[in-house]
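Researcher: Please translate sequence to C-alpha cells.
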Amino acid sequence: MSVNYGSKRIVVGAHYGLRDWLGQRITAALMALFTVLVLARILFSKGPIGYEQWAGIFSSQWMKALTFTVIIALLYHVWVGMRDIWMDYIKPVWLRLSLHVFTLVWLIACAGWGIQILWRL
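Model: Translation complete:
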C-alpha cells in the first residue's frame, strides 16, 4: 500500500530559469549594439536622410546578415517575455495555450515580413 506524503506537485514552465534570463540579456545587448551601430551610421552620413540613404545603410551583405541576426534575437527576446507573462498570469490552460499559439504565429509572421523587407532592399 502506497502512502502519499505532502501535496501534489504541479509542473509548470518555470524550469526555464537561467537559460531564458541569460538569453534575454544577450539578445538585449545585441539589439542595443545594433541600435548604436545604425545610429552612428545615420549621424555620420552626409546630407539629409532620405529613402536612398536609408536603404543604402542596409544594402551591404554584412548589414543584411547582421540585421537578420537581430531580427531572430528580437523574436527570441519577445517570445521569452510573452511566454513568461502568459505562464505567470493566465491560469486557464486552454487560454494560455491559445495565447502561446497566437504569439508564435504572430512572431513568425512578423519575422517573415521583416525578412521580406530586408531582402527587398
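Researcher: Any highlights?
Model: The domain at 13-120 is CATH 1.20.1300.10 (3 helical TM bundles of succinate and fumarate reductases).
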